[in-house]
UniProtKB/TrEMBL annotation:
This is Uncharacterized protein. Residues 1-35, 228-251 are annotated as: Disordered. The lineage of its organism: Eukaryota, Fungi, Dikarya, Basidiomycota, Agaricomycotina. Residues 7-17 have a biased composition (Basic and acidic residues).
Length: 251
C-alpha cells in the first residue's frame, strides 16, 4: 500500500516521491479498466509525499504541484513538508516546519486554438497568482500556492490546476508549535480520476494526519532514524483496513 515509484509526468520528467500511497486496483471484471489500463493505474501512486530538508521552499512547492497537474489524473494530492534545519555544525537544530497539501482543484477540457496548442507544446508547469494571471516563479520571493499544466490529447486541450494552503507547524524563533488539530484526507484525494469524472469530489473522509505527528516526523531526533522506521502519518478511522499503518515513508 505504501512505498515509492518513479512517476512519469506529461512534461517528460520522471519523479520519485519520498513516500506514496497506491490506490487499490480492482480486477478488470466489474470495472471500466482493461488489464492494460489497470496495470498502468496500479503502477502509479494516488497520493505522494515530498520532504524538503533545508532546501528551497519554492522548489518544494512546484515539485508537489507538478505531481498533481502533470500526472494526467493519476495523482490527486501531494503533501509537501518543508523542514528548515540549522547546519551540521549547529547540530541540525530544527528551525521551522511548514506543510502544504496540494489538491487537484480544477480541470478543463477545451477545443484547441493555435495559442493553446502552442502553450500545451511547451509542457510547462505554470504558476498562477491570486489575480488568476500567470506569474514568474523564478522572480517570486515566496512559494507559489497555485499551479497549472496543459496538454493536448489529440482532440482537446486538457488543463489541470492544483492549489494549496500552507500550514505553519513549528517555528523555533517565535516558540510556536502546533500539535492540536489535523489535516483531513478525503476519498477524492485517494482515488484516481480515471475512475471518476474529472472534478469528482467526495467529502467522505479517508483518514487524517495529526499535526502532532507531522511535528514529530520533522523533529531532529526523528530525522536520525530511517524514514521506513518512522510512524505512519495517515491514520484511518477505527475499524478501517490496515488501520495501524496505511502509509509508511520509505527511503
Amino acid at each position: 500500500m505504501g512505498g515509492t515509484a518513479d512517476v512519469k509526468l506529461k512534461d517528460g520528467t520522471h519523479k520519485s516521491p519520498d513516500a506514496s500511497y497506491y490506490d487499490l486496483t480492482p480486477a478488470p471484471e466489474g470495472s471500466r479498466e482493461t488489464e492494460e489500463q489497470a496495470a498502468s493505474i496500479e503502477s502509479n501512486p494516488t497520493m505522494a509525499f515530498e520532504i524538503g530538508v533545508s532546501e528551497s521552499a519554492k522548489k518544494l512547492a512546484k515539485d508537489c504541484a507538478r505531481y498533481v497537474v502533470a500526472s494526467g489524473g493519476m495523482i490527486n494530492a501531494a503533501l509537501g513538508a518543508w523542514i528548515d534545519c540549522g547546519s551540521e555544525a549547529e547540530g541540525r537544530v530544527l528551525k521551522k516546519v511548514v506543510v502544504a497539501l496540494w489538491r487537484l482543484s480544477g480541470f478543463e477540457s477545451t477545443d484547441p486554438t493555435p495559442d493553446t496548442l502552442m502553450e500545451a507544446s511547451r509542457c510547462e508547469v505554470k504558476r498562477i497568482g491570486r489575480n488568476g494571471k500567470q506569474e514568474d516563479d523564478r522572480r517570486a520571493k515566496s512559494p507559489g500556492e497555485r499551479f497549472s499544466f496543459s496538454s493536448y490529447d489529440g482532440k482537446k486541450i486538457l488543463t489541470w490546476t492544483a492549489s494549496c494552503t500552507p500550514e505553519l507547524i513549528y517555528c523555533k524563533e517565535t516558540g510556536f508549535k502546533k500539535t492540536e488539530g489535523h489535516i483531513s484526507i478525503y476519498n477524492y484525494d485517494m482515488f484516481q480520476v480515471t475512475r471518476q469524472a474529472p472534478g469528482w469530489v467526495s467529502t467522505a473522509q479517508f483518514g487524517e494526519i495529526q499535526y502532532a505527528d507531522i511535528y514529530a516526523w520533522g523533529s531532529v531526533r526523528d530525522q536520525k532514524a530511517p524514514l521506513s522506521k518512522r510512524k505512519s502519518l495517515v491514520q484511518r478511522p477505527s475499524g478501517s483496513p490496515s488501520h495501524e499503518a496505511m502509509i509508511q515513508a520509505t527511503s
